[in-house]
Amino acid sequence: MHQPPVLKKGDKIAITAPARKISKEEIQPAVDILTKWGLEVILSKNLFNIDNQYSGTDKERTADLQTVLDDETIKAVISARGGYGTIRIIDKIDFTKFKKHPKWIIGYSDVTVLHSHIHTLGIETVHATMPINFTKNAEALETLRKALFGEQLQYETEVHPLNRKGNAEAALTGGNLSLLYALTGSISDIDTKGKILFIEDLDEYLYHIDRMMMNLKRSGKLDHLAGLIVGGLSDMKDNAVSFGKTVEEIIFDAVREYKYPVCFNFPAGHIDRNLALYFGRKVKLEIADRVKLHF
């Protein structure tokens, strides 16, 4: 995997919104923080446009993303927020210049579309908090700063009863489970063989989670993993007639027959303590009495 250059003071970072709309008031704290880090913040042209729930029309959002990807003076691009919409424009983006001059692409949730597509191009990305969430958790924000400026990331977390012990050393990939499911069979679909897969999700019915895990299983994405990291699974819902399993049990049952290490409740995803992860980078996962992840 190709690693884009780490940032240094004076570098430009662009904020764009390929999905849901955002206001100046919502984004200003993040602009102030990035500026304090010594970065020059570039706001994409149509950032504050509104087209129903979107930050502008498909055409406007496409133009913004294309512009910041093509601009060689911009060294990182962070999505203002998630929501829904990136999948509508991904096929309109030309990554030719981006492949010649890679830069960090940052975000989570709907940004999984970009993570996955760029993973297929052989370039690392950063799964991390976004401007809409910058003030929610200081630790999450600091791990993003470290990731962008090339400082070491190393995490240690508590165990979960359903964890499966073991070690793995492989490239990390993944993102939001709903988006990975939606990308199945497309040119943005990731190859998980021999890799450590990270998944997380928000506000889904339990049977939806089961259906998505069955999709990953039937499409072969769970067969040959080096390991599985399950992040935040927030605000899950059940029907009047209970599904009968917790969300963790649903995921564990989908991978029960395999032997690779599995950990639950890793602090990343749709939670305030959303620790930064390098997608595409080889990591070392150790699951024993504690869970350790080394980049």
Write a brief caption for the model.
The chain has 295 residues and is an alpha/beta fold.
If strands are numbered along the chain, what order do they take across the biggest sheet? 6-13-12-7-8-9-10
Q: What structural class do you assign from the helix and strand content? A: alpha/beta
Query: What is the fold named in CATH at topology level of the largest domain?
Result: Glucose Oxidase, domain 1
Give the distance, in angstroms, between the N- and C-terminal Cα atoms: 14 Å
Cα-based radius of gyration, to the nearest Å: 18 Å
CATH architecture of the largest domain: 3-Layer(bba) Sandwich
Write down the CATH class of the largest domain.
Alpha Beta
- Give the overall shape: globular
State mean pLDDT (0 to 100 scale). Answer: 98
Q: Tell me the strand percentage band.
A: 15-25%
| Count of discrete structural domains | 2
**Low-pLDDT sequence parts:** none
Spell out the helices and strands N to C: EHEHEHEHEHEEHEHEHEEEE
Sheet of most strands: 7 strands, mixed
State the helical fraction: 25-40%
DSSP strand tally: 13
Number of helices: 8
Superfamily (CATH H level) name of the largest domain: LD-carboxypeptidase A C-terminal domain-like
